[in-house]
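user: Here is a favour to ask of a fellow structure person. I have my own habits and do not want them to colour yours. Could you put it straight underneath, so I can go through it closely?

assistant:
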Amino acid sequence: MERVAASVVSVDTDVECEISFAIDNQRLAVITGDAKVTVSLECQRCGKSFTHHVHTTYCFSPVKNDDQVEALPEAYEPIEVNEFGEIDLQALVEDEIILALPVVSRCMILNTVKCPRRTWSLVNCLKRHRSQIHLPY
């Protein structure tokens, strides 16, 4: 999971992954599953590292060309097979984990307070909403 490791401060647990393979009523191959991992991210507000639990689910159907992509039901995401008709399952899971990461990471202490007015400074905002902040310690 090199690409996941490059996207986060650290990968704190092994990836727990479940993958199922089936043929649906339309005789399409279907790959479903989920993946879980705990990572450390850098808060974009305070710069400190915090723990983030990633959980993602997926539902794919292998395709060879664009015509097959167009024919897929909306419930399935297309996944292209290589020239040997194979799918790189590790890359599939890694892609889904990366897509599940937040675009802008913020630690929960600062994320619990959502100010309607962006002109307040963070300190004033925290003072105003101190009763809503739940510290884990």
In short: The first helix runs from residue 2 to 7.
